[in-house]
Design a protein that fits this description.
Layout lengths: L1 H63 L10 H14 L4 E2 L9 H7 L1 E6 L4 E6 L3 E2 L3 E5 L5 E2 L4 E5 L5 E5 L4 E5 L1 H5 L2 E4 L2 E3 L7 E2 L7 H7 L8 E5 L3 E4 L5 E16 L2 E14 L5
Antiparallel strand pairs: 1-4, 2-3, 5-8, 6-7, 7-13, 8-9, 9-12, 10-11, 14-15, 15-16
Length: about 280
Amino acid sequence: MNSQFNLLEQHLNATENYLKKLNEAVQQDEALNYFNIMALTSSTILSKLRHIQQMLLDTAINIHHGHVDTRLLPQNQLFQELNIISGQLPQQLSLPVDNIQNQLADIYKLLEVKSRLFDKYFIIEITLPLTGDTPFTIYKTIPIPMIKNNNQSITMKTNSEYVAVNVRKETYMQLTNSDLEHCIKIEPRTYVCSLNKPTRNMRNHQIPCEIGAITNITLSKCIYTSESCNNKWITLQKPNTWLYVCCTDCQLQIICEGRMTTKAIRSTGILEAKKDA
């Protein structure tokens, strides 16, 4: 009997030791799992902090350059604010786009931002330019020479690189290429400009020659220059369209749909090719 009790006691002691070791192993596994979870959580937090840090850095850079992105002003918030602004504008002013919902990307190009830091506040001011009720059409002035028989050409002297004319052809502005570079292009043929330029009356008899050409007014005070004739090939705004100046006979080879044709041109004119030519 004593031997049986001794054997049972040995088994109990062995079981107790085994349970202690098992408990320690379980605790180690739990500790390891906890450590892994904390490591994963810390990594996720650090990743989010890096993302926030990069976002703040990008936002600060954009603000410094006067730009606004969707993280600073989300699209849904911008859409709501524009609807409020549009409903409060006077009749002679309007937003610089026709469709707010479809042209939000264009509006972000026009937004300007300023910021100021106070003791407890960081204030961001976002502005959007408004446009008048009279749009202007921009014309590029390209003087076309008149070719003489002695290989000379006479060209009208223009006063400006570009001319902006209102839709009723009542007023105009003279522009340079530098002026257009400061405008913002929101569509292939639409510019938003903030120009400190005088607007002149087109009915004035002192208008430049290029303005007279637009209004079909014949002016006698145009200045012409005479020079040696040079062949020119000028790309126009319309696709596949060129203005040519050919002092003598010029031969063109045109390839359309795999077929080549030869065309003779002379003097000045406009050449328009097919889309696939």
